[in-house]
């Protein structure tokens, strides 16, 4: 099916959109790859790097006649981009996205697309790098990584299968969740830790003796706060977009540390030990499992590459 | 001064004590290096690896006639080891330690050593690896790393200078703090993050859908929780030993995330953004500074190696 594609549009050719373009091209996709984005310099860079075949400036030129449109811009822009797409949205065009929150993307899409919502297949690749922009794009960013599709009841099977097959070509492992479950899961294992890391660095940075504190912060602090190096705009948008789930996770976490505080204050070393050792054991099991899965994923990806 | 040393005792020859022994030997120290420890197998391993010259089993054999004794065991054992040392403590012997908390080590030393407290010079190397035991010991563990001496008013200058010069030989940068300031600083930038990381993994591991949550946890979660892979015994002891400072930090942190929760609930995206961006900027400045310092440290260490 994917070999019949003639035109694929990447709306936002940064790390995520650019890596998708490089990956499907290197997997054998012959379609014209058209880029469109807010920053002309960035688009010219993507063109010069051979990530896309051409840059479109006007919405009609970009989106008209497209087989697939990938929206790879910060989540808060999804609605606006869909509004630009709508007048030129072909009857058989499939639109997908890469946003870190899904319920809000679906709500925006329902509002903008109305009875054409069936053409929007929401997705989220669980991959990234500490670098941004087209120059950070690499063809193997998604190899062995998860890609979550939060398909809608209105989606046609063929549309979902198209999105699935393109991401499989990138080497990703496809998972299906509802938008609500997706958002609850990522509130817990991604959005909450980001907020907690920002909170710690902010707390330290506001102290009178901040310079002394930072002077003695070592590798543990550095790892713990690595995600506080992420884009504040992006994470503000994610936090606001996934507010209810994130509030729920924050409340559970606050209750947990208040309970550990009480163990510490009352000198209940045994209870603290139990919490620490349960956590350490659970983390070790998880690390063992992902390391095993990564090995399998790499093996599968290598086999796959030999096919093309 | 350090070239006159004839006998140096390492009480606890694991990663920290073993790396100290390897580093001072490779820096040219000729003294006999004697190891003593609770685990006979581990001591034999340290001997076989050439980290120490011999293993002592009896306290008199180990500590008698020592010029320097390094206590490199978990902090809760400091008092017990000092009790074993006391009957054989020479008049000119200097005792030092490597504990992550200092006020408790000083209190234990004052209680055990009484009017011989001047011979105890408390110290804390800010270095580690994810591995433990003698086989993890490496001679350059401390190169460019900080070594904090929390000298006591009773310490003689010569004793402090001896500890300082040995750690300088290991490539460490020497810093001086009071035990109380040391403990407050590390409660903030080390002990609190450990507790927070354990708390997050524990919270996730206790959920009904823990398997699903761990399945979607990615590299951000992994970095954030890396320190929750640390020894639960060690961190229980550190938390209990530094309880007051840690409670203080926990309260400040809880207040911070409660305030961020309130921004999130009321939809104050601007305030959240301000917190995130202040934190991101502060962290970037800090990372830039340590990367510059690491370069300088390595350059200095390389120069130093050429001297020997």
From TrEMBL, chains A, B:
Keyword terms, alphabetized: Amino-acid biosynthesis, Aromatic amino acid biosynthesis, NAD, Oxidoreductase, Tyrosine biosynthesis
UniProt record, GO biological process: tyrosine biosynthetic process
Record domain Prephenate/arogenate dehydrogenase: where: 6-294
Statement: the UniProt record of this protein carries the keyword Oxidoreductase: yes
UniProt xrefs under InterPro entries: 6-PGluconate_DH-like_C_sf, NAD(P)-bd_dom_sf, PDH_C, PDH_N, Preph/Arog_dehydrog, Prephen_DH
SUPFAM superfamilies, per database record: 6-phosphogluconate dehydrogenase C-terminal domain-like, NAD(P)-binding Rossmann-fold domains
Pfam families registered for this protein in UniProt: PDH_C, PDH_N
UniProt catalytic activity: prephenate + NAD(+) = 3-(4-hydroxyphenyl)pyruvate + CO2 + NADH
Annotated PROSITE patterns: PDH_ADH
A single MF term (Gene Ontology): NAD+ binding
Pathway(s) this gene product operates in, as recorded in its UniProt entry: Amino-acid biosynthesis; L-tyrosine biosynthesis; (4-hydroxyphenyl)pyruvate from prephenate (NAD(+) route): step 1/1
The protein's Enzyme Commission number: 1.3.1.12
Family affiliation: Belongs to the prephenate/arogenate dehydrogenase family.
Protein's recorded name: prephenate dehydrogenase
Top-level taxonomy: Bacteria, Pseudomonadati, Pseudomonadota, Betaproteobacteria, Burkholderiales
């Amino acid at each position: 099916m994917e070999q019949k594609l003639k035109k694929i549009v990447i709306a936002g050719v940064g790390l995520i959109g650019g890596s998708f373009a490089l990956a499907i091209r290197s997997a054998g996709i012959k379609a014209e790859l058209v880029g469109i984005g807010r920053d002309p310099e960035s688009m010219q860079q993507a063109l010069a790097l051979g990530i896309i075949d051409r840059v479109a400036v006007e919405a009609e030129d970009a989106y008209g006649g497209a087989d697939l449109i990938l929206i790879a811009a910060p989540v808060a822009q999804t609605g606006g981009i869909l509004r630009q797409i709508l007048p030129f949205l072909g009857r058989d065009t499939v639109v997908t996205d890469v946003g870190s929150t899904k319920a809000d993307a679906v709500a925006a899409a329902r509002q903008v697309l109305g009875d054409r919502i069936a053409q929007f297949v929401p997705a989220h690749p669980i991959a990234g790098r500490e670098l941004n922009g087209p120059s950070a794009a690499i063809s193997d960013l998604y190899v062995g990584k998860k890609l979550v599709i939060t398909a809608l009841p209105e989606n046609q099977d063929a549309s979902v299968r198209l999105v699935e097959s393109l991401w499989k070509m990138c080497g990703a492992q496809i998972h299906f969740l509802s938008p609500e479950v997706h958002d609850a899961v990522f509130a817990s294992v991604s959005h909450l830790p980001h907020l907690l890391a920002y909170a710690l660095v902010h707390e330290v940075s506001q102290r009178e003796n901040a310079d002394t504190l930072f002077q003695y912060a070592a590798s543990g602090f550095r790892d713990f706060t690595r995600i506080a190096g992420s884009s504040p705009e992006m994470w503000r948008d994610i936090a606001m977009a996934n507010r209810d789930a994130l509030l729920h996770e924050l409340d559970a976490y606050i209750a947990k540390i208040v309970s550990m505080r009480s163990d510490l204050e009352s000198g209940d070393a045994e209870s603290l030990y139990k919490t620490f050792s349960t956590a350490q054991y659970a983390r070790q099991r998880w690390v063992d499992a992902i390391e095993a899965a990564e090995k399998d994923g790499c093996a599968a990806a290598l086999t796959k590459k030999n096919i093309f």
